[in-house]
Write a structure and sequence with these properties.
Elements (H helix, E strand, L loop, with lengths): L3 H10 L6 H11 L9 E5 L5 H8 L4 E5 L10 H12 L4 E4 L3 H4 L6 E7 L7 H6 L4 H17 E12 L6 H5 L18 H10 L2 E8 L9 H4 L2 H5 L4 E8 L9
Helix pairs in contact: 1-2
Length: 252
């Protein structure tokens, strides 16, 4: 297979990302502190498969991506991903056009599950009603419980999204353009504290929240990777949580 660097270069040449350096920052920051070597990984809502491909090249032994194109995903993403994998000669990657709810692998099939900016899309209608609607809460506890089910005890979940609180979000409700993220419908997202509470109820432990810095400002990450700065930019956060139970390392 190709090297990780060759993958970064290919993605930039193919127009899949703006530059190799930016893609490297994106991938390495997403998986920061998450071991990949020898792991089985599930990417829920894998899109164009950049994280999926990176994980495999970074040492994951089996990677599965779910991308239900008919359920609102970007059209053609599975085809582009298939071409990329073929061009790069990457094996050990399986892509399925299914939703998480319909996939149904065996319990403990994966050591790592990732969800990049898809948590609200698992059930957008229910997400809109969180946290005021008990039925919506139960719905999401069930969905996150399915994520816990497919993880081994001690397995890792990494999810990213944007919070609904943002300095410039009121502009969009007035019909004005957000200066940094014009395409986000802020009220259709939830704050990280909401997801932390649901994760704990669904069987995860030690959810850790960190704030992400936009790629174009990565040189200032030391100053901007905090909640206050993020609320003035894109409100992007990252949560890393583990399924309750002893991990593979703790069993040794």
């Amino acid at each position: 297979m190709v090297t990780v660097k060759e993958f970064f270069d290919y993605a930039a040449r193919a127009g899949l990302y703006s530059s190799p350096a930016r893609l490297e920052y994106y991938c390495r920051q997403f998986f920061r502190g998450v071991p990949l070597e020898g792991r089985r990984l599930l990417d829920v809502g894998c899109g164009g498969g950049l994280l999926l491909t990176y994980a495999r090249l970074a040492g994951a032994r089996r990677c599965v991506g779910l991308e239900p194109e008919a359920d609102g995903a970007t059209a053609g993403s599975l085809g582009r991903l298939g071409r990329m994998l073929a061009d790069l000669g990457v094996d050990g990657v399986e892509v399925r056009g299914e939703r998480l709810q319909d996939y149904g692998p065996a319990p403990g099939a994966f050591e790592v599950v990732v969800m990049c900016n898809v948590i609200n899309h698992l059930d957008q209608e229910a997400c809109d009603r969180l946290p005021r609607d008990p039925a919506a809460r139960r719905r999401y506890v069930g969905l996150l419980g399915e994520v816990a089910r497919v993880l081994v005890p001690g397995g890792t979940l990494v999810l990213t999204d944007c919070g609904r609180i943002n300095l410039f979000a009121p502009l969009t409700r007035l019909g004005l353009r957000h200066p940094f993220e014009p395409s986000i419908t802020w009220e259709r997202h939830q704050e990280p504290r909401v997801w932390v509470a649901l994760l704990e109820e669904a069987g995860f432990r030690d959810p850790r929240v960190s704030w992400r810095v936009p790629n174009r400002l990565r040189a200032l990450a030391g100053l901007l990777s905090n909640g206050l700065a993020s609320r003035c930019l894109s409100s992007d956060f990252r949560i890393v949580a583990r399924r309750a139970g002893p991990s593979r390392e703790e069993d040794r």
